[in-house]
Design brief:
The complex is a heterodimer of chains A (199) and B (251).
Chain A: H1 6-15, H2 23-35, H3 38-54, E1 56-57, E2 64-65, H4 71-74, E3 82-86, H5 89-97, E4 104-107, H6 126-133, E5 139-142, H7 148-161, E6 167-170, H8 186-194
Parallel strand pairs in A: 3-4, 3-5, 5-6
Antiparallel strand pairs in A: 1-2
Chain B: E1 4-16, E2 20-27, E3 31-37, E4 56-62, E5 70-79, H1 82-85, H2 89-105, H3 113-127, H4 132-146, E6 168-171, E7 176-178, E8 189-190, H5 192-203, H6 206-211, H7 218-232, H8 237-250
Parallel strand pairs in B: 3-5
Antiparallel strand pairs in B: 1-2, 1-4, 2-3, 4-5, 6-7, 6-8
The chains are: A alpha/beta (199), B alpha+beta (251).
C-alpha cells in the first residue's frame, strides 16, 4: 500500500480485514469515507469505538446485551416455558424477525465442528443444561443450521436434554417459500416430507 | 482449461464473501481440486444440500488455464451423507474426520482412482449404518497402504524374511514389523487377534468388515495415529472431537 498516504493505507488495511471485504472494496469504502461529510465520518468513528465497550453477552442466554441481561431475557411478555437454541447471536435476530416466537433464547456461540476443532467444550452448553435443570422449561426448540455441523449439534443436545424432561423439537427443514419443487434435491425434499403436517 | 464434468466427493467448504463458498473436491478424474461455488450460501442456492461434507456429486468445473481456483457450474447430487449426521454426533464427527483424512492425503490435481473408490465405499458404508470407529480404522489403514506407508504384516522390515505367526512387533527405525531374529522392538506390539483383524481389513469391503468388526481394533488407533502423524507431520484437527464424541456415545 505504498501508493496511498499512510493514513489512507492504514484504513484500507483495516477495512480489508473484515469478512467479505477484499482489497478493491476496502479501497472503495476508504475513498467513499474520504469524500463523505465530516459529521458522517465522525458518527461512524464513534459507533465503532463505542460499541465494544457498550456491549456484552447476556449472563443468562449469551445473546448480545447492553447490560447484564438482554432485551429478550428481561421482556416480561415472553414465556419461560419455551427455549429456542441458536448457534450465533445473529440467528436470534433472524428468528425474532418472524415475530412468531414468544419464548426465550439460548445462544451456543457456534456448532460442533470437528474440522475446526470445535467440540462440546467449546460451546455454551452448560448454561443451557442449568436453565433446563432449574425447571419450568417445557420445550426446547433446536434451531441450529441445516448443515452437517448444525445437525450434529442438534442430535448431541437432544441426547443431553431429553433425560432432563422437556419436549425437545427440531425446526423443520425443507423447501423455501417461492421455490420450485422441480429443483429441490433429494435430501431437501426428503426432509420436507419428513416434516409435513396435517391440514 | 476446457470445462469438464467429473464425479466428486465434497471434502470441505470455506465461506467466501457474503454468499459464496470455496469447495475442496476429491474428483474421480482430476484428483483434489478447489473451486468457487457462487451463491452457495445465498437464500436460493442452486446447490442446496449438495455441498455438505462427503456428498457425492457430479460436478461441472471450468476456469482459466493454470488457475488455482476453478468455478463450479452445475452440481448434481448423487448421494448425500447428510442423513449420516442425523444418526448421532459421533457419526457426524466421523464424516468430518474422514473428509479431513482424505484431504490431508490427497495431492492437488493428482488422480488417484483407488483412493476415490475407497472414499466412496467407506462413506457409503457409513451412510448405510456401519459403525464409525472401525470404519475410521479401515480408512486409515487403506489410505496408508495406498500411499505405501503401511508396513507389511508378512515380511520382516529388517531382513525381509517371512514374519512368524502370532503378534506383530514394530520397529520404528526400520518403519516396519520385525521378526524374532531382528528384535528388540522399539515400537508398539500388535496382538495376534489384531493381526487377524488387519488381514480381514485388507481383504474385505468396508461394509462387510464393519458388519462384524473384530474388537481388537482398538489397539490400532494409536498405531495408525502415529503413522499418520509421522507422514503428515501434524495432528488432524477433527480427530480429537471425533474421539471425544465417540467415547461419549459409547459410554
Amino acid at each position: 500500500m505504498q501508493d496511498y498516504p499512510a493514513p489512507l493505507a492504514a484504513l484500507v488495511d483495516e477495512l480489508r480485514r473484515l469478512p467479505g471485504i477484499g482489497q478493491k472494496t476496502a479501497q472503495r469504502l476508504a475513498f467513499h469515507l474520504m469524500k463523505a461529510p465530516e459529521a458522517e465520518v465522525q458518527r461512524l468513528a464513534q459507533a465503532l469505538s463505542g460499541f465494544r465497550a457498550a456491549l456484552r453477552l447476556c449472563t443468562v442466554c449469551n445473546a448480545v446485551a447492553e447490560g447484564e441481561l438482554c432485551a429478550c431475557c428481561t421482556d416480561p411478555g415472553r414465556s419461560d416455558r419455551t427455549l429456542c437454541v441458536v448457534e450465533e447471536p445473529l440467528n436470534l435476530v433472524v428468528v425474532e424477525r418472524t415475530r412468531d416466537f414468544k419464548g426465550r433464547y439460548h445462544v451456543l456461540h457456534g456448532a460442533l465442528s470437528p474440522l475446526s476443532g470445535i467440540g462440546p467444550d467449546e460451546l455454551r452448553i452448560d448454561g443451557l443444561l442449568e436453565r433446563v435443570r432449574a425447571g419450568g422449561v417445557e420445550e426446547v426448540i433446536l434451531a441450529t443450521s441445516p448443515t452437517v455441523e448444525g445437525e450434529a449439534t442438534a442430535v448431541y443436545l437432544a441426547r443431553l436434554l431429553k433425560p432432563l424432561g422437556p419436549k425437545v423439537t427440531r425446526i423443520a427443514m425443507g423447501l423455501p417459500v417461492g421455490s420450485d419443487l422441480d429443483w429441490a434435491d433429494e435430501v431437501t425434499l426428503a426432509k420436507a416430507l419428513e416434516g409435513r403436517r396435517e391440514y | 482449461m476446457p470445462p469438464f464434468t467429473s464425479d466428486a466427493l465434497v471434502l470441505r467448504t470455506f465461506k467466501l464473501g457474503e454468499t459464496s463458498k470455496v469447495v475442496v473436491l476429491l474428483t474421480r478424474d482430476h484428483g483434489k481440486l478447489r473451486a468457487v461455488a457462487r451463491g452457495a450460501r445465498g437464500p436460493r442456492s442452486r446447490y442446496q444440500s449438495s455441498l455438505e461434507t462427503l456428498s457425492e456429486v457430479r460436478v461441472g468445473l471450468y476456469g482459466r488455464q493454470g488457475a488455482d481456483l476453478l468455478r463450479v457450474g452445475e452440481c448434481e447430487l448423487l448421494r448425500s451423507a447428510f442423513p449420516m449426521a442425523g444418526r448421532g454426533p459421533d457419526a457426524a464427527a466421523a464424516l468430518s474426520y474422514f473428509a479431513e483424512l482424505l484431504d490431508a492425503f490427497a495431492q492437488e490435481a493428482q488422480t488417484e482412482d483407488a483412493v476415490y473408490r475407497l472414499a466412496v465405499a467407506v462413506t457409503r458404508a457409513g451412510e448405510d449404518g456401519g459403525a464409525c470407529t472401525p470404519l475410521a480404522r479401515y480408512l486409515e489403514a487403506w489410505l496408508l497402504r495406498l500411499h505405501g506407508l503401511y508396513p507389511s504384516i508378512d515380511r520382516c522390515a529388517r531382513c525381509d524374511g517371512a514374519l512368524p505367526g502370532g503378534r506383530l512387533v514394530y520397529h520404528s527405525l526400520a518403519h516396519g514389523f520385525i521378526c524374532d531374529g531382528c528384535s528388540p522392538a522399539s515400537g508398539p506390539i500388535l496382538s495376534e487377534v489384531t493381526r487377524q483383524g488387519l488381514r480381514r481389513l485388507f481383504k474385505e469391503a468396508p461394509a462387510t468388515f464393519v458388519a462384524d468388526a473384530p474388537p481388537a481394533l482398538e489397539s490400532l488407533e494409536a498405531f495408525h495415529r502415529a503413522l499418520i502423524e509421522r507422514h503428515l507431520e501434524r495432528e488432524l484437527r477433527s480427530l480429537r472431537v471425533f474421539r471425544e464424541l465417540s467415547r461419549e456415545v459409547t459410554g
